[in-house]
């Protein structure tokens, strides 16, 4: 079958027309700059259909646009005219009819141009003034007004992920720029509100999360006292030490709950600094390791570097970070956990290493709130441990560093800086 496009092109060449052809909608958009006198658009063009091409070029060309299509539905015809088309020719059509329509539109366009020239040659009449106003609206007001109307609708629907593109340096451009500033501020306010809601959720989850470690210690001491005290496998001195440690854990939970109750977000927690020695940290961490070792059935090795210098920081936050890192290592390690603590005058570091499978995600992902590597684990852990540790390290002027060792196990180092 003969190519209809080639046949049409041949016919128009015979009629002495200069022809510019485009194989698809995208190519047609690029050739608009050649300023044709009349445009024939096939509705079913590849890449971009004729309706969309017409919609995009209508503001850029004033020449007649004729649609050629086999679509006969009334809505298709309405869509063609709504997009800016001037005529709608249904296939199959005769070449004579097409020639007649082209000639009629070109004559009409010629008359329009002559009439426009006559209006500007004489004095401005009322009709000329109306035409000037219309042209001013078309060229200066229509595009920014349409953008502002659409922007208002999107803002009313709370859709703020857009921008106003009109950038002319005139009064309407200035109005559009001010409107864009308003949209940006609304978007920032919405994001701040969303963050506030999310922080409130994390706050509630954090309270439950960070009292689990002291509760585990209390539970362990309670089980040991219940099992070994009646049979006198432990003496009164050992029992009193357990009770004393239990009391300290209760005080920590009480202080933590009271602090969190007063906060509106984790980031607002105020630091309460004090002088802390390496020996003091070793004693506090060691008091919990025995219980956690029994609970998880894994060996923990605590290594504290000797130092005469004292670190000035928030002891409760430091212990919470240590507990979070240790809890994470005990869940994912296989047999042995190593904790290395180094306290100096300027910095304090807590490094926890396990012999598990290591991290499979990047550090940013792991330290997100509610992160969990598997569904089963998430039933026991809200995913806040790493997130809280990262926030507390940053609040202490430091950072949380995540990685894997040469054997594949996870290595997490909390670095906290001295509070000035």
Description:
By secondary structure, the chain is of the alpha/beta class. 55% of the residues lie in helices and 14% in strands. It contains 14 helices and ten strands. It has helices spanning 4-14, 25-30, 50-57, 74-82, 95-121, 126-156, 171-210, 212-228, 236-261, 278-296, 315-332, 363-366, 375-378, 385-395, and strands spanning 39-42, 65-69, 87-90, 273-276, 299-304, 311-314, 336-343, 347-354, 399-404, 410-417. Strands 5-7-8-10-9 form a five-stranded mixed β-sheet, with helices on one face. A three-stranded parallel β-sheet has the order 1-2-3, with helices on one face. Helix 10 packs parallel to helix 11 (315-332). The radius of gyration is 38 Å and the shape is elongated. The chain starts with a helix and ends with a strand.
Query: In total, how many beta strands?
Result: 10
The end-to-end span amounts to 86 Å
Strand content: 5-15%
pLDDT under 50 segments (min length 5)? 370-382
Radius of gyration (Å): 38 Å
The average pLDDT score comes to 81
Summarize the structure.
The chain has 420 residues and is α/β, with parallel strands linked by helices. The protein has 14 helices and 10 strands.
